[in-house]
Specification:
The complex is a heterodimer of chains A (156) and B (301).
Chain A (H helix, E strand, L loop, with lengths): L1 H23 L7 E7 L2 E10 L2 H18 L16 H7 L1 H9 L7 E6 L4 E2 L5 E10 H10 L9
Antiparallel strand pairs in A: 1-2, 2-5, 3-5, 4-5
Chain B lengths: L1 H21 L18 E5 L7 H7 L1 H16 L7 H10 L8 H12 L3 E10 L6 E10 L5 E8 L8 H10 L2 H18 L1 E9 L10 E2 L4 E2 H12 L5 E6 L3 E9 L12 H14 L4 E6 L2 E6 L1
Parallel strand pairs in B: 1-2, 5-11
Antiparallel strand pairs in B: 2-3, 3-4, 5-9, 6-7, 8-9, 10-11
Classes of the chains: A alpha+beta (156), B alpha+beta (301).
Chain lengths: 156, 301
């Protein structure tokens, strides 16, 4: 009986290790790459992850905005972060703005187009990913950030 | 008793006079609202030695297009620049130019315009068998200190076209946003850490004092008294001494805040010069002060 208990617990531990290992790998990173930019617009290819296509697209769009806000996009006209590199501090400082921006989907008003460029890909762990080309109205976005005192206007 | 009433009447009259002189006019009273004084920015063309700044724009439409496009970039950020051509015309009308030396003319225009920052645009046209292109070198300087604020090189790319106007436009578009972003970083740094002023302290020809003169209640040399004051009064203790001789002391970079830290009102080099003036008076000296842009000249009599 004791031996059977030992074997069953060993099997459970092994199973747990296998499932944990599986759920932690293979999900793609949230990549955002510059495609083109002209006259105050910027087009990026972003990858989003979600449980369905809609969630994955929303995640990709959010990733694109996050990169513009807190990282900057090399090769584009916005090489440096539009707001700052410390996103935790910036989001905490302007909680109301970011709540409205993301949770109430206000960011959609700055999206000029959002076109999926890949099929929804299934990954282990039930997650799905999609790549989209998202075009953002950068001039309007900067003006909005200025008006809401998230960033300073040009000058002193 | 009569005397008492007389003194009271004098005091009342005096206070009403002070009110009339120093109180804010109701027509201009903003209710304590303070708007930051913005830097004056002027975009000018690059000129080689001996080139006439007055005709260089008129002869080269590519330069005019590049300058207009750069100004457009500033406008899109809601910022108005000082118009170089208008200033040039005003300078001509007012016979500002006193020398034939072109470099002098450039300095004179910058000085006359009162620009705090000037942006220099160099347009290079390149013709080749594999296509034509325009390169643009953009540099922004702080007029008073010469500190560089932003530098960018823009390129139109090579095209089989003779339309150099379009190529100049493309060259500006390729770098102007980045250029402005870098400038804004420097402006933010100025807002946080203060703007630079130059302080030049010297002695009048007939002055009995020198930098080594022991002065004040503690009898320390004047140069040390000045440095101790600067240590306390430069914004965030940020100052740099270019050099000290017995007859001169130059601070080539002293930071002053953009806003009065006590009242929140705008602060400028003139106000800092007044504090410096009061300090010298406190030491029992007779100073003279002159403020030219961001340079403060103190002459001790």
């Amino acid at each position: 009986m004791k031996k059977l208990n030992k074997i069953s617990s060993l099997v459970i531990v092994t199973l747990l290790l296998i499932t944990t290992g599986c759920s932690m790998k293979t999900l793609p990173t949230a990549e955002v790459n510059y495609l083109s930019g002209k006259d105050g617009t910027i087009t990026m290819r972003a990858i989003g992850i979600g449980t369905n296509q809609e969630d994955a697209i929303i995640d990709a769009e959010r990733n694109a905005f996050n990169v513009i806000f807190f990282r900057g996009l090399p090769e584009s006209e916005q090489k440096i972060a539009l707001i700052g590199t410390n996103e935790t501090e910036e989001k905490e400082k302007n909680k109301d703005y970011f709540n409205k921006f993301y949770k109430d989907k206000r960011y959609k008003t700055f999206v000029m187009s959002s076109i999926p460029t890949s099929d929804l890909t299934k990954h282990k762990g039930g997650k799905k990913s999609i790549a989209i080309d998202v075009k953002i109205n950068l001039v309007a976005l900067r003006k909005d950030l200025e008006q809401n005192n998230i960033i300073r206007k040009f000058g002193f | 008793m009569k005397n008492k009433y007389f003194i009271l009447a004098i005091l009342l009259l005096q206070s009403s006079l002070i009110n009339t002189v120093f109180c804010q006019n109701s027509a201009t009273n903003s209710g304590g609202q303070v708007v930051s004084v913005q830097p004056k920015i002027m975009v000018i063309p690059y000129t080689k030695e001996g080139e006439d700044l007055r005709t260089v724009l008129e002869n080269d439409e590519n330069k005019r297009i590049a300058i207009a496009k750069i100004k457009e970039g500033f406008d899109s950020r809601g910022f108005t620049t000082v118009d170089f051509v208008a200033k040039l015309k005003a300078a001509k009308d007012n016979n500002v130019f006193t020398s034939d030396n072109q470099t002098d003319i450039k300095s004179q225009i910058i000085q006359m315009s009162g620009a705090d920052v000037y942006v220099q645009a160099e347009v290079i046209v390149e013709k080749g068998q594999s296509g034509n292109s325009v390169k643009l070198i953009l540099t922004a300087y702080e007029a008073s200190t010469g500190n560089s604020l932003s530098n960018k090189v823009g390129e139109s790319g090579k095209f089989y076209t003779e339309d150099f106007n379009k190529l100049a436009s493309k060259a500006v578009e390729s770098c102007v946003e980045d250029f402005l972003n870098i400038m804004q970083i420097k402006f933010t740094d100025i807002v946080n850490n203060g703007k630079s002023v130059i302080i030049d302290i010297s002695f009048d020809a007939g002055s009995q004092y020198k930098m080594s003169s022991e002065i004040g209640s503690d009898g320390l040399p004047l140069s040390d008294q000045i440095e101790m004051w600067m240590e306390k009064n430069a914004f965030k203790n940020n100052y740099h001494i270019q050099g000290t001789t017995d007859l001169k002391m130059i601070f080539d970079d002293v930071k002053i805040p953009l806003k009065d830290q006590a009242t929140g009102n705008n602060y400028n080099p003139n106000k800092f010069a007044l504090e410096l003036f009061k300090f010298f008076k406190g030491l029992g000296l007779q100073p003279g002060k002159d403020v030219k842009g961001s340079t403060i000249y103190i002459t001790i009599k």
